[in-house]
Amino acid sequence: MSKGQRLSFDLDDEDLKLFNEEAEEQLELLDTALVHLEGDPDPDLVQQIFRAAHTLKGSSATIGHRRMAGLTHAMETVLDAVRQGKLEPAPAVVDPLLRALDALRLLAQEVVLKRHSGVETGDLEAELHAALETEAGPFRHEPTPVSWALSGAAAAEAFAQIERGQPVYLVHVRIAEECQLPGIRCYQVLQELDACGVVAWTEPERSLIEAGAGEFSTRALLASDVGEEQVQSALAAVSDVGLAEVRALTAEQLTGVAGGEATPLFEAAPARAQLTVVGRETPEAAAAPRKTTQSVRIDVERLDGLMNLVGELVIDRTRLQQIREQLAGVLRQTSHAELMENLEETTAHLARITDELQEEIMRSRMLPVRSVLTRLPRLVRDVAAKCGKQVELVMAGEETELDRSVIEEISDPLVHILRNAVDHGIEPPDERRAAGKPETGMVSVTAWNQEASIYLAIRDDGAGIDTEALRRKAVERGLVAAETAEAATEEAILQYIFLPGLSTAKALSDVSGRGVGMDIVRTNVERLNGHVTVRSARGLGSEFVIQLPLTLATTKALMVMAGGTVYAIPLVSVTEALAESDADLHQVGGKHTLRLRDRLLPVADLARALGERRLAPVEGPRFVVAARHGDRQQAFLVDRLLGEQDVVVKSLGDVIGARRGLTGATILGDGTLGLIVDTASLLSEQAQLAATA
Amino acid sequence: MAARTPEHTVEGAAGGDEHVVVFRLAAEHYALDIQAVQEIVRIQAITTIPGADHYVEGITNLRGRVVPVVDLRRRCGLPVSEVTAETRIVVVSSSNGMVGLIVDAVSEVLRIRGEQIEPPSTIVRVPENSYLRGIAKLDDRLISLMDLSGILPSDDSLALGADEAARAA
Question: Got the DSSP string for A95-145?
Fold first, then answer.
């Protein structure tokens, strides 16, 4: 380890923010408080300082910053002695604490800069330990203060052990810093201890150690009838054990430990403590089960490559099935019936294997939705605090998996709806009380899979959406004609919430902005070929459900023929497909218009709209496909409807480049290519054309 | 590498032997560096791209890959011809990925000696000649060596950008 060396810590960007805020807060507290420690300190102040050091220890240990955790641990040890009145806060004690504080600042910065600051903590720790010894000789053999929780049974067993005259040891093992596999060494240490006697308590928890998630420092309470030396030598047998302290405890010391003063190992960050998060694991527990499943990091590009190869395999499978059918007719009549049977068996098997392979590879690109949900508790807390509301967030289905390409896109819509739910949905506590509801509102985020879709439901038990206000606003702002709004059903009015430029909040707030949002949420979700729906009941709450495809690699589409080319129109944007003869077509101001459920849609020839100029005249009846994207609607004339199909999206390649109106190409059943229509860009282009015309 | 004749001991930058695929466009012979040629396939179903540049025939499915196809006759300003039994798609790998080039026929694979190659005429310099990098003079015929980057510029000028702009205007 040397200055400037790259460091990596076990935290993502969101955690980094949390860590930073917390570290800054605690360091500031230490800064102002430590200088007042000298002399005869106020016990509250000492307690405050001790807690600050303890919190820093917890958070630095969580992210795997060992030097910082080690130094704060040493500080904590000294401060605990001061707190218990065993050590007088003389300059000889405070000075090393202040020097340690200076070092802590640099260590905390390392987390942000991801570079080694050059600070080594060994000397400082030694200084702190020396401070403990010089002044307070009698106390130096006191057990290192440990904050732990002894469960009733474990404590009882330990006491019984002592009563039987058998020793109970407090064991502290440090794994050498250069060790590559501390988790495994920890596990070996635990096994050795198990062989020596009964292990009543460990830090980290036994389940973590057994899952291989142990860290460089392990502590344990061991009830054993073997001698101290034997435990020592058992531990020495484990490689990479740097320090092994084994100390026999007296019943008294054990009482001090177990007697109700059970403090949690790491105090939860205050930010999170105010939230009851159901269905979420604690950070420690969350780390454990995931480490037990074996995993390999794979480059996303490689996965994409595999996906493409499998796509080709799927197409070949389809081709092979077609060839088999063609051959069947010929071969059955001859003496090759048996050969034909073999071919049929083989193609059927190949088809099955190919499907499974495709599924497996799809799965390998999937990530649990958890990665998006983890930042929601903090978001809800912040928003609730800002609007003076009490909100409990409940999350479920975090293990639901979806394609990484989709995951990257759903975060914003999700955050937006959640913000709205807290800001606009949940009522202030007094209003809730008056309505006979619990003061704390409930917001839930639930994810689940169904068929080839993932659903995300955001529910709140707030006031519900005021449809009357919505109706009024929509008319006031000229978004909906008055007579249309009057006639609209409650359900239809709820849909107004997705109209651009609409807000139902009584007062504008800096949380949810000025009514921009829900229309963008819908646009974003639909761009991913998804849907967002809303339900609401006055006084009971609202529910938004986002439905998204599991992957963006395949799309359900309506296949049409236009100008001699097969086009795939994503099904999510198709509202209607009908024969031209059945369509209510008009000429309005010299323009083709389709009247569809009281709406007038401009009509354009699909091939022409896409820029096709080599158009042959069409014979026979044509068809009309009505498409919608966001708030835009348009009807397209096509030559034929070919039915629905799952299409695999393929890029048109660099030479063709990005084409407006086209997303890509797809391989059809007969091996030829069809073009996938990009409804979003096509409709906005058409709207522009109409505006300029 | 095959043995070289003794008189080839001195090699300039353009003096090395070239291994090329020779094909026919109208009555003329052209050649492409064999390194760039991925494969040669019979003409197959091509899906037109609406609004594409006139020489972009469309896209085709090459074993699951979407490959754009350029009509070389159109690209070289030659009159369009009917597809015959000899028409082929020469699939080349370019800086823009795989591209198919429609040619009238593929005749042979040749090794051309360096001294048989002359740079394109310095007198006749027309824009259409930008895709030629040399002319090989063989005993019985002339073969124009095509420069792939000339046919398929790496910028967007071929990527239908001009056409897009024309539509927007």
Answer: HHHHHHHHHHHHHHHHHHH-B--S---HHHHHHHHHHHHHHTGGGTTSPPP
